Amino acid sequence: MTLSKDQQREAYRRMLSIRSFEQAAARQIDNGEIPGAVHSSIGQEAAIVGACMALRDTDYITGTHRSHGHPIGKGAKLPPLMAELMGRTTGICKGRGGSMHLADSSVGIIGESAIVGGGIPIATGAGLSAHVRGTDQVSLCFFGDGATNEGSFHESLNMAAIWKLPVIYFCENNLYAATTPLRSSHGQPDVAHRAAGYGMPGVIVDGQDLEAVHAATGAAVARARRGEGPTLIEAKTYRFDEHAIGLFLPSIYRSSEEVDRYKRERDPLALYRQALLAAGHGEAELAALEQSVSRQVDEAVEFARNSPHPDPAEVYEFMYSNPINYPRAERQSS
Amino acid sequence: MTSQRLSYLSAILEAQKEEMERDPSVIMMGEDIALYSATGVLGKLDNKRLWSTPISELGFTGMGVGAAMTGLRPIVDLTIASFAYLASDQIINQAAKVRYLTGGQARVPIVFRMSMWHNQANAAQHSDRPYPMFMNVPGLKIIAPSGARDMKGMLKAAIRDDDPVLVFEDNDLWMKSEDVPSDPDFLVPLGKAAVKREGRDVTIVSIAGCILHTLPAAEQLAGEGIEAEVIDLRSLAPLDTDSILASVAKTGRLVIVDYAHRTNSAAAEIAAIVAEEAFDALKAPIQRVTTPDVHIPFSPKLERPLYPNKDKVVAAVKKIIK
Lengths: 334, 322
Ligand SMILES: Cc1ncc(C[n+]2csc(CCOP(=O)(O)OP(=O)(O)O)c2C)c(N)n1
Prior knowledge:
heterodimer; A: 6-stranded parallel beta sheet; two-stranded antiparallel ribbon; 12 helices; 8 strands; B: alpha/beta; 7-stranded mixed beta sheet; 5-stranded mixed beta sheet; 14 strands; binds thiamine diphosphate
């Protein structure tokens, strides 16, 4: 194990926060408190947190439609995230983004894109910007296996490789793109092998093993900070819930045996809990952590419930940084 | 104020050069940027400021957006406007929306340049004038200057602006020269139309290179006793509705001259606004002079007659002034 005891506790806390936050979100979809649908990251917590904990606060990340785990993994506060899911003014995006766009710039998240593959060039540009400004920041880009078939993936990796940009391309390969299995959408099953075609390292890591992910990401981050360029990391992971809770897609695309086997044998939280006990953390310490996270999530839900809804008169706000008198706006709504 | 004679094309180069010298966060990216450094038109610049990209319109446009969100001010040169379609996901789904989606956390100070080539026998895939499509996207600022002076002042204003700005350059205007103030802080504000000629009988709203037809048309009409007021729109988003309405209130007649295809053109939107808000001021039906809804053909004999020209503008005016 490479993480210190404190870091291990923090990693476990972040994984628990994602799990517990997602479970709360699923309950609130059911009881009608969250509009729309939510894409949960349950099953993928080790990949997310292992990667984020290899970054500094000032490093950038971009994410995807499965957007709750990434800010939590990078250390964002829970109440504004929950308020966003419930469409409140106190939401991290003031009720303009919702479940698929939980960006929190205070922890370096510059955007979560619900357009599959859309964040990949953005992260690459953040890497370019760090390079031009001469900082040693890196930019880490989360995306799914589905996104690797978009042109934006190819174009971005090619440019990052040519210019040795400080970008980590991090694929959460959960084996499915919505209902499409990887085996029917990829010519060969390992996304990381594509890296060779661009001239960058490709690394496969067990995405259910937090410390393995952390080590692989840490190596890629160090390489990027040394000016040696991008790395493609593929974390083999698995999504336990449906593609989107509240969308009611039929689940015939994968067997319940497969899902059960992952939940039983490959649950990243259970695996890490065992590892922590083996590393000398006490049962009482972990139980206390679990309780405190569950209390924090309850508090986040309460905060969101007690927050006001946005005023419809403010719907034009946040379109522009520098609005030019936009006289049409009011006239249009009549 | 001292001034210099500049072509529309050199106004673009001067604006970029001055802004890059003034502000180290301005960078340029695009496919033929190497030309700029090779010819030295941008002076001595650190090579980290000029990114000559592979042919990857979607990718480098998105990289520009990411760079803009993290402290730079990129000028992304998409060269020909038809190529913006490949980049449109990043322009529309990212550049235009991220500020809103993040509740104001993001800032996207980026300029997208693209030129409209038409009347040059390039056929359908290189002859688009797609500004109306982008006018349908909230969150973008869009300009289409019609002369060197406005181009320099507005491009500089666009580079200094904190929002995404699309600059549509009309390649018919490239070689036209004008006197341009030399002051490096000479700016022309975005969002304001310009009255290029005053008149009392009819308002002619002109977009980009259409000025090459509307001003001569107004001259000819003046010879026949009809005084046209010519408004050069310059800014397409936000649209300077007030200037248009004020002019129509005075003249009571409106002709809109627009290089875009007719359906859902900028002209269509302006006509709708005037019909909604100044119907009572109108003495005659609004007229649109546009390009018909057909792909641009290769043969000059087929292509040329499609576009607005002086005779069409004159005819449209005469139709509503008997
Ligand atoms: C460009 C685009 N195409 C299709 C969709 C619909 N869609 C949303 S999520 C998704 C699956 C994405 O799969 P993957 O990239 O593997 O991410 P995962 O959902 O597994 O996290 C699809 C097809 C979309 N949002 N954007």
